[in-house]
């Protein structure tokens, strides 16, 4: 039994687990160019907000190694252009822009292009390492909140493979498994891309957690029939007032948790907060291609040419969230006031590159 990982920095190369092919094919890809990284993020080969940020950070560092410029100014300009390009690979997860901005800020200090190249790699590695530590700490806090609540529902994959390690929403289950604490996890399949069925079920099985798959439409019935005691999900972007964007279907679960009177927890690192975004209304919601809905695999399931609306995320209003679990502490109550206090974060992040 082991916790799967999805990103490795090995001998100066960025290697990712191809999440498009899971669970039946375990394939690793070396991303050699910035275009490779963009494509891997856009097509969900690497996905999950923190993992997207880590991959983009390494992608920017990898691309920088090839810039052969005459002046440091020209080097910095090339890195800026690369960051703007990578920043457009997906719109909703703020970790992407957060990681790129962090690298841009670091590299500004450099006096030479060569030193700048090294700084970028070091900063990407730091982001990678910090995310693992953050997720572990989120797991510890989540374990304390889930005391006495062993039957838990989740959606999408906010797991180890969506982060550096452990995950956010799935971190308590991995840590619990290491310590002999038993959970029964109910994973919503997460149409249309099936991150729940393909990724969460596989990941939890790898680490020995008891997991049961349901379709998204079974959530309401299952909460009652199986006496679900809590719901825990990840996040792609959390606004200053606590409104939270996460995988489409998350809002359904938040409404159900409220109706059933069970806690609804969001688990996310500080890098997922965007205090420059005041509320959920300002969060950009990615819309993906129609074929994700009209087809399952290559099999059409709707009449050809069917009109489709395919938002990849929804926004859960803060008032439906019982607590936001971060590596810096558990945030409850007045989110507008308590988020900056717990995270020690102030507006300014998430601005355009
Ligand atoms: O479209 P995806 O698979 O990237 O969406 C992922 C999610 O919505 C996750 O819940 C979120 O990014 C948190 S991952 C720790």
**Number of H- or I-type helical stretches:** 11
Residue-averaged pLDDT: 96
> What order do the strands of the largest sheet run in, or round the barrel if closed?
6-5-4-7-10-15-16
In what range is the share of β-strand residues? 15-25%
Main β-sheet: number of strands, strand sense, barrel status? 7 strands, mixed
Tally of DSSP β-strands: 17
Q: What is the share of helical residues?
A: 25-40%
What small-molecule ligands were found?
Answer: 5-S-methyl-1-O-phosphono-5-thio-D-ribulose
- What structural class should be given to the helix and strand makeup? alpha/beta
Any idea what the radius of gyration is? Answer: 20 Å
Question: Any idea what the shape is?
Answer: globular
Element-by-element helix/strand order: EEEHHHHHEHEHEHEEEHEEHEEEEEHE
Assembly type of the shown chains?
Answer: single chain
State the low-pLDDT regions, or none.
none
Function: Catalyzes the interconversion of methylthioribose-1-phosphate (MTR-1-P) into methylthioribulose-1-phosphate (MTRu-1-P).
Pathway: Amino-acid biosynthesis; L-methionine biosynthesis via salvage pathway; L-methionine from S-methyl-5-thio-alpha-D-ribose 1-phosphate: step 1/6
Enzyme class: isomerase
Family: Belongs to the EIF-2B alpha/beta/delta subunits family. MtnA subfamily.
